[in-house]
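S1.2 Input.
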Amino acid sequence: MKVLQINKFLKVVGGAETYMFQLSKALENFDIEIKFWGMYDEENTVSDFPGLEVETIDFQNQKLLSKLGSVIDTIYSKKNRKKIAKVLDSYQPDIVHIHNYNFQLTPSILPEIKKRGIKVVQTIHDSQMVCPYHRLYNFQRDDVCTKCIKGSFINCIKDRCFDGSVFKSTVGALESTFYHSLGYYNKYIDTYISPSHFLANLIKNRVKKEIVVIPNFTQVQYQPTPETPIKDYYLYYGRISDEKGVLELIELFKATHLHLIIVGKGPLEDQVIETIKDSSNIEFVGPKYADDLFKIVSQAKYVVQSSKWFENCPMTIIEAFSLGVPVIGSNHSGFIDLIRDKETGYLMDFSNKESAVKQLKSIDLNDVSKLKTNVRQYYDENLAENIHLEKIISVYKNVLNR
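S1.3 Output.
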């Protein structure tokens, strides 16, 4: 079987790229041939089709006339359609597995794939098909936003969702309106894969195609030993930013006196350092990676994820579960998909500080060892790599047999 993986970035930028590369590496062990196509960058991890990669668009440094020309290419790109045609004719894949492609690659590539009779599978990594800004969050208001899920995409322009810019927000709204009105997402994708029921249910508001729910998987090489101690600290790790609820989490732990370690980097680092300078129970250690990070995770009593915005399938939870660590997460979105309340962790309303303080103090009195046993069993039965691969290969075979 030959599979072409398509993604706008061919280097690790976020969770989508990490997942795509890990999945592809694992699939190759099943004698599935993999190649990649996307946007050119000198830091790309792969370069399977030199000269046929997509050119980047730099909105920040363009003058107005060239920027207007880029808008057209951002919505519909004839150049990219011609390039993917050459790639397809050269490689002749059995399946195209698409990840993130809007704006940089554009859905204009889809008809070229379909007219060759090639099956198309798409993993939905974000809410792009129901939210032009693809984040379900308005940073100007610092609040979750779901206006476009069932309403008009004009809301994106009204609320200036893209960085407070009317220009960028208009481009986003036009792109969403254009492809939905032409039915691209129903015509040209054979099967969608969603990492969570939460995201699948959102997408079903505008897309009427099969959506198979398969949670993400991880390849954490570090594994704790039976002698690994459970230390008396709670751990937040990830991006240090507003939407993740980090500052609110700090205030919560200040009221509990429980030990919180914060790992990560982001725009609020200086503010975090200032906020905790007089707090003896909270420490910020900056970013950690690979074994250095996972050693800290594996020894935590709980991982805490207090995200204010909606998460699809948080990789931090899957990573924590793979190390046998229960998670205290927000009681919304993809957290509800992964965390079984009081069995593999706890779901919490972090916006209600008084209630959250009481809940945290109560949780700290419980024996965490039983939850750790539950987490390990749940991970092995639902999230392990072999289970994920079996489900992905089953999707591939099903679309090929239609």
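S1.4 Remarks. The CA atoms of residues 11 and 43 lie 7 Å apart.
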